[in-house]
């Protein structure tokens, strides 16, 4: 909810993230075992407060409480990638993919993880799968363009970028 508005630039971070943090904390007062509230709080911890230790603790608690929490798994995976802990991040993302096997979103996020790990061929494979599942997924194409550029495949990068812009303009 609220924290996504700030993460995607739809509202001011200085307003949205504190509101999201407060809402998550209130939810945890009502139910200390709310995996959704822990996931939301962990997202605020790492995206806004840069409190990696607390974020990791909250993600771990959320996944422990509910191993089938797709959002906790995918966000925890993204968080771990940003810390350079790629194998742990992919383990979380693969668990998310097992929960929602046709999620173009998690496939695209895994592609970005492989990109960050400089495993470009795997990144291309995952981003193509994301695009296969959702042909209107411009984000996957933008990621693919970045990956192709780093592989030195500049013509493919440009074609993919243009395709992403075309899809985005049509939506």
The unreliable regions are: 1-11
Q: Percent helix among the residues?
A: over 70%
- Output the structural class: mainly alpha
Q: With helices defined by DSSP (H or I, 4 residues minimum), what is the helix count?
A: 10
Distance between the ends: 22 Å
Largest sheet: none
| Radius of gyration from CA coordinates | 17 Å
Query: How much is the average pLDDT?
Result: 90
Overall number of strands: 0
Strand content: under 5%
Shape: elongated
SSE pattern? HHHHHHHHHH
Quick overview:
The chain is mainly α and 171 residues long. It has helices at 2-7, 13-30, 35-47, 52-65, 70-82, 86-99, 104-116, 120-133, 138-151, 154-170.
Tell me about this structure.
This protein has 171 residues and is mainly alpha-helical. The chain contains 10 helices and no strands. The chain has helices at residues 2-7, 13-30, 35-47, 52-65, 70-82, 86-99, 104-116, 120-133, 138-151, 154-170. Helix 2 (13-30) packs antiparallel against helix 3 and helix 3 (35-47) packs antiparallel against helix 4 (52-65). Mean pLDDT is 90; it is low at 1-11.
For the structure shown, list the relevant keywords.
171 residues, mainly alpha, 10 helices, elongated
Strand-helix topology:
Blueprint: H1 2-7, H2 13-30, H3 35-47, H4 52-65, H5 70-82, H6 86-99, H7 104-116, H8 120-133, H9 138-151, H10 154-170
Helix pairs in contact: 2-3, 3-4, 3-5, 4-5, 5-6, 5-7, 6-7, 7-8, 7-9, 8-9, 9-10
């Amino acid at each position: 909810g609220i924290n996504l508005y700030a993460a995607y630039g739809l509202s001011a971070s200085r307003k949205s993230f504190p509101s999201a943090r407060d809402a998550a904390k209130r939810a945890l007062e009502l139910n200390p075992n709310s995996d959704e509230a822990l996931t939301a709080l962990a997202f605020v911890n790492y995206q806004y407060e840069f409190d990696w230790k607390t974020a990791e603790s909250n993600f771990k608690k959320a996944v422990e409480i509910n191993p089938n929490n797709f959002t906790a798994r995918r966000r925890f995976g993204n968080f771990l990638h940003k810390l350079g802990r790629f194998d742990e991040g992919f383990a979380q993302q693969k668990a998310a993919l097992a929960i929602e096997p046709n999620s173009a979103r998690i496939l695209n996020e895994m592609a970005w993880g492989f990109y960050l790990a400089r495993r470009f061929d795997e990144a291309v494979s995952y981003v193509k799968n994301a695009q296969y599942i959702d042909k209107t997924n411009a984000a996957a194409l933008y990621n693919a363009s970045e990956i192709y550029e780093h592989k030195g495949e500049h013509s493919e990068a440009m074609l993919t970028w243009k395709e992403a812009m075309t899809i985005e303009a049509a939506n």
